[in-house]
Design brief:
This protein is of the alpha+beta class. The protein is built from eight helices and twelve strands. It folds into two domains: about 5-85, no CATH class; about 85-210, no CATH class. One of its GO terms (molecular function) is nucleotidyltransferase activity.
Amino acid sequence: MFSRHDRAWLSSAGWTSALDGAAPAHRQALEQWRRHDWPLIVTRRTPDAAPGAVCLGLALPPDGGRKLRIAVQVDAHAVARAEPALALQAAAAAAPAQWSAPLAALLADAGAIVLRAYGSLALQAVTGLHYLSASSDIDLLFEPADLHELDAGVQLLQTHRQRLPLDGEIVFPGGAAVAWKEWRDAAIGARVLVKDAGAVRLMTTASLRDLLQ
């Protein structure tokens, strides 16, 4: 079972399959990822995905403001291994100097709350390529274990948002993910946009909180 934002490393047969199905314009990037053994990122399953397939994405560094994302489908057995999104502690090493002290403060205050990074900061940390710009956000995931950790995590992000461009998602049990800013601003009982591995839908904040009871 794969979750959105997981990192997925392909087997040799998986790379062969990915390259065979790629558009000619995308093959150079895919070859680069294969050569370095960099992971692809698990994305939401598309309606046309074949049974037993996993949907993956490869995002290239911005080129003149243009962001190219390559979609890849492979059989699940072609994934050699998969791991959750990169821990923020590991991703922080790739952050620009102006983020270093605020990120250290965020991590110190997080305590037992596990924060993971995806998007530009994580991709720059994994590949060493230049993804971050002056307008980049820091995309974070946190998966609360209970209601107390949910509320504490949202307060943590809100507090440190004063010094860092924090964005990202709260991931509830079962993989239901909500943008933390939308959750922060939602009235009690309001409906929020939820994304998971297979769909996008609306759910009430109360029903999501119930998942943590």
